[in-house]
Amino acid sequence: MRTFLRLVLFSLVVSLSGCGYNTLQSSDEQSKASWSEVVNQYQRRADLVPNLVNTVKGYAAHEQRVLTQVTQARAQVGAVNLTPEALNDPAALAKFQAAQSQLSSALSRLLVVSENYPQLKADAGFRDLQAQLEGTENRITVARNRYIKAVQDYNVTVRSFPTNLTAMAFGFQVKPNFTVDNEKAVSTAPAVDFDKAPDAAK
Amino acid sequence: MRQNKTRLVNLVAALLILVWASLSGAQTSQTLLPVPALSGRVVDLTASLTAQQQAEIEQKLREFEESKGSQIAVLIVPATAPESIEQFALRVAEQWKLGRKKIDDGAILVIAKNERALRIEVGYGLEGVLNDATAKRIIEERIVPRFKQDDFQGGISSGIDAMLGVINGEPLPAPAARDVEGDSTWSSLAFLAFIGVLIGGIMRGLFGRARGALATGTLLGVVVWLIVGLISSALVAAMVGFVVALLGGRMGGGHLGGMGSGRSDTWGGHGGFRGGGGDFGGGGASGKW
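ok -> structure tokens follow
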């Protein structure tokens, strides 16, 4: 009876912990799925840009500089494509991130500029686009956070014992993760200056 | 006998550790505002609505779920700091899991009263019809003007009406037949019996028929008590486990197993409102007043 009990316990332990191969597979797959969602949402934002640029052009055609910047950043983003397989390369991820954050800042400049055009702000199409852009930015944040968590789970499995042995045997590597884009901007407090008029070109 | 007892104690201890481990794993960082309990379709932590106004909106939302299947809820909190309303609303959505599983047709109207901010958080399944632009319009045109005049009931009511109207235009799968309370009780019992047969088989092998049945009953009782927290449910579970394990061998075993397919996640529910397992991905719109 004692041996039987030991057998049951042993098989339980083995089935619970195992060698981690299945965990590796599922967390790898999870991180890839999360990445697809990130790309999906970035793509959604890129798709909004041409419409947005055209709408703004209708009311503020002489804001050439900002409009060109947005269009260029949009083109750049389209050129950097990152498949889940290429994700293991930190340099590729950094490049992708740089292109996307350039589009982010170009878009926010465009929105700041558009504050100066009351007619543009009243345009129903523009307001809808703005709402869609805001929503998409939020979705990007969510998708990125989920990706960061998925990669974290995966990396912990790849690094910790005894699953690291399995990972080594089957060639699972630690994946690079997103970093905070504007670490500096986040950590420095914004300066408030009441003397000057609000600077629209920021 | 003594040996058997210590083994039983060991088993129970191991189970306790398992439960404790799974509970402690669920804790998140503590500086953030905890997600309020889903006590109903309208959760008002600021007492902005009277009981009657709250009941009216709840009624509307309940009827809508019965006819259309979508779960919509309203949450009013004083503030969401240190998070933005978007981050907070998403955490609420992830925890409440409104909307049906795989259809993801849930939506939440979150209002942070002192911060004068609000957000409509939209589940994946409704993003097509209640898209960001529509959600923004509902906020700007229906809710914000009324909130500016401190008419909370009017703003929420009008906003909800607009949301329901929009969602009504989306062809969603028909709602499932309503879960009757007795239904879920029976499926829980069937599930218990199924587990009882499984554990009973092992226990019988270990301890013999009578003691094995006793052990099964005790084990099930303790587990159910830990999960549900009700002595009465635990006693019922213990009885079921005992009887099933006692009879299990004689009935040839196995053919009770088919009954175990019932929904086990309805345990301990008292007919209250709960999310159906819908997913959210940050869709929707926010506004201020």
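DSSP finds eight helices and no strands in chain A.
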